[in-house]
Amino acid sequence: MTVSIRDLRPGDASDTEAVVQVRRAALPFMITTVRGVAFELDSAHPDKRYRLLLAEDGDGLVIGTAQVGIAYDSPEPGQGFVNAYVHPAHRGLGAGTALLRAAEEHLGAAGAVDSYAWVLDEPAHRAFAERRGYRVGRSAHFLRLDLASAALPALPDPLPAGVELRPGSAFAADPRPLFEADAETTRDEPGDVQAEFDDYEDWLRHTWNSPHLDKDLTTVVLVDGTVAAFTAALTDGDARYCSGMTGTLRAFRGRGLAKLAKTDSLRRARAAGYTEAFTGNDTGNAPMLAVNQRFGYEICATETRYAKAMGTTVETETATA
Predict the structure, then answer these.
(1) Which of 22, 70, 80, 180 is 20 to 30 A from 161 in CA distance terms?
(2) Do you find a cis peptide bond into 10, omega within 30 degrees of 0?
(3) The sheet that has 226-235: what strands, in order across it?
(4) Beta carbons of 249 and 154 less than 8 angstroms apart
(5) By CB neighbour count within 10 A (0-12 exposed, 13-18 middle, 19+ buried), where does 53 fall?
(6) Which tens digit of pLDDT belongs to each residue from 28-54?
């Protein structure tokens, strides 16, 4: 079967809907919406060299998609990424191979030194990456919580002295304190590709203004009026909630503030009608993994980060994906 690759057509509702359908089928533990897909392109920094690729079969049906670009906020230049997804009902037709080939050509033209890809930690997916010259790196878990029935902890009453809980929306007039908190905690996150946030306007554009960020369900912990911890709530506007980022600033760690932020946000999300909660953890981040498991989150899938030096050649293959 012939598989063709093209870019998503901005403003084309059928294209964005097709991407949503493929991602939901391939990665049902992530928040994916039509508005979010369109936003990815609209908000992308020029230095990201971002493209959304679509794989079509001979009948014009979108059976796969890939996100590809440059980690422009990394202190190490030339770090590229490609995350390719093929609809489970259409695997083995060559869509994954074609998407990866097109993505690597784009990264090479954009000056990437390395290409990083998240791969589901399953034998067929790992073999696909390894046959194409990718080497194994870190791993991360997806976790799921049945929010409708979870036995969530109660909030302390009263709160510890000097501690306040505020929704993210309370910072609508001036979100810079949240930018600064996000920047500090992101620098400390374990990962293969480090990120440094130093562009406030860019952060506003792609994080604060994201259609998935629910500012009312985001919880910020203040200690004596200073932002000390937060959990960012991502939602699909229907029933699914995801912890996009939970962090505690260095000066306030070890006081249970991350748990406090998550407790408040999860309880308010359930009250708002959300029934399913997801989060993600680097497998090496034992403290955060322990916090989530105490809430009742269970691991539902694992991804492994693979990397390849651009220009690496591999043997011609007959297997397709």
Answers:
(1) 180
(2) no
(3) 4-7, 51-56, 62-70, 79-86, 114-120, 298-309, 135-146, 276-282, 240-248, 226-235, 219-223, 163-167
(4) no
(5) buried
(6) 999 999 999 999 999 999 999 999 999
Q: What is the pTM of this model?
A: 0.92
How far apart, in whole angstroms, are the C-alpha atoms of residue 184 and residue 97? 38
Q: What is the CATH number of the domain that holds 257?
A: 3.40.630.30
**Biggest distance spanned by C-alpha atoms of the chain:** 66
Backbone φ and ψ for 18, nearest 5 degrees, come out as -65, -40
Token pair for 186: 């992101």
Structural domain tally of the chain? 2
Q: How many C-beta neighbours within 10 Å does residue 238 have?
A: 11
Claim to verify: residue 33 and residue 74 sit in the same structural domain: yes
Q: How far apart are CA 321 and CA 316, in angstroms?
A: 14
pLDDT confidence band for 313 (50 / 70 / 90): low
| Token representation of residue 261 | 């932020």
Is the CB of residue 130 less than 8 Å from the CB of residue 312?
A: no
Q: 169 and 67, same structural domain?
A: no
State the residue range of the domain holding 242.
145-301
